[in-house]
Amino acid sequence: MKTKSVLTAALAFMSMSTFAQNTDGRIPAKGFAVFEANGHFQPYDFSRHAVGDNDIRIEILYAGICHSDLHHVFADWGAEEYPMVPGHEIAGRVVAVGKNVTRFKVGDYAGIGCIIGSCRHCDACEHDLEQYCEEGAVMTYHGIDRFNGDEHTQGGYSDTYVVAEDFAIKIPADAEIEKVAPLLCAGITSYSPIMQAGVKKGDKVGVAGFGGLGHMGVQYAVSLGAEVTVFDITDDKREDALRMGAVRYVNVNNPDELKGLDKQFDFILSTIPAKYEPVMYMKILKLDGQFGIVGLPAFRNMPSLSVADLVFQGHRKVFGSQIGGIKETQEMLDYSVAHDIYPEVEIIKADGAEIDKAYRNVLDGKVKFRYVIDMKTMK
Ligand code: NDP
Ligand code: ZN
């Protein structure tokens, strides 16, 4: 009797798991994960939820390495869960579509940025600002996907992703696909505050931090007709800034180069990922100038602006900005492709040691300007 019930239970369990596999149809995925906060990537097998009626599945072609990935990997912004597959700059090709999908068909290019879900009905979502969803946006990785069984999300350093079509970005067929992935975070994060500030022809714009985000910000501001000054901490990228259309490059470690800039700027974008003095940038804004902040250093190195700084540099506005909503991300992507604005990328193989090395180089300021992993080379 006892043997029989054990057997029955075992058979019931087996058929349940077979049933679960057949109907829930989880999709095997492989990528590169860190298993602790050490920046050491290793191959990692996991799975993604099945393609639902409103979902698309993409084969990931390219994944950008954003400085935010480093902040997450090294737990700069608080505790993280591991294993973690980072990557929120994703460009790929659609390989499957759910039955209700209308915007994509198999074979199209599609992109995924930092968010893959939101409530869709709060004030933020209704204003196309899903990144500020009042119930919490679902992050592409290091997130919990409450719309798909509380799945722990894993990012783009992998071979495939399943996403609701409403959170996927259309990539035109004639886009330079190997350069598109960084637009999905570096692109939109610099584009959005430039648009929020209303930058226009003839404006004097500063871009502080000339890396992945900064070099996109320079290109957008130049394309709008602004006169752009770049601020960074070495001389290494001076020629690059001028080549991209900046009129001036300031190495902030050389105080002489800051002379004559007081009260000159209509808008300054800070993409700085490390400790700095924000008030220095407030002082070089004109009256009614705006200071947009997107760079988010580790919590232990967080810069601050005091109330006194705000009052003494009064009649100037400071605002922060997180990526952009899905509608604006699509607008940015279409604008970028139409104006031939792309990141400068260094393409690396999908290999743990290569990704480790890229991380070291980002930390050491040796990247020009964005690493992109060619996920097709994954063995
Ligand atoms: P990168 O590392 O590519 O670029 C940062 C640049 O800033 C580098 O050129 C770096 O120089 C320079 N820099 C460092 N310190 C200073 C300083 N004190 N003054 C001026 N320049 C400095 O990073 P990303 O562009 O990928 O990301 C930048 C920041 O933006 C990160 O903190 C990231 O997390 C954040 N981010 C925020 C988002 C948002 O939604 N708000 C979205 C995406 C990113 P060097 O290379 O020599 O070190
Ligand atoms: Zn990013």
What do these coordinates show?
By secondary structure, the protein is of the alpha/beta class. Helix content is 26%, strand content 26%. The protein contains 10 helices and 19 strands. The protein has helices spanning 2-24, 67-73, 123-126, 186-196, 212-223, 238-243, 278-283, 307-312, 326-338, 352-363, and strands at 27-34, 41-48, 55-65, 90-97, 109-112, 115-117, 138-139, 144-145, 151-152, 160-164, 169-171, 204-208, 227-232, 248-251, 265-270, 285-293, 317-320, 345-349, 370-374. Strands 3, 4, 5, 10, 11, 18 and 19 form a 7-stranded mixed beta sheet that branches. Strands 14-13-12-15-16-17 form a 6-stranded parallel beta sheet. It has a two-stranded antiparallel ribbon with strand order 1-2. β12 (204-208), α5 and β13 form a beta-alpha-beta unit. α4 crosses α5 (212-223) and α4 crosses α9. The longest helix is centred in the first third of the chain and has 23 residues, at 2-24. It is globular. The termini are far apart. 44% of the residues are buried. The model is unreliable at 1-23 (pLDDT under 50). Residues 66, 68, 88, 185 line the site of zinc ion.
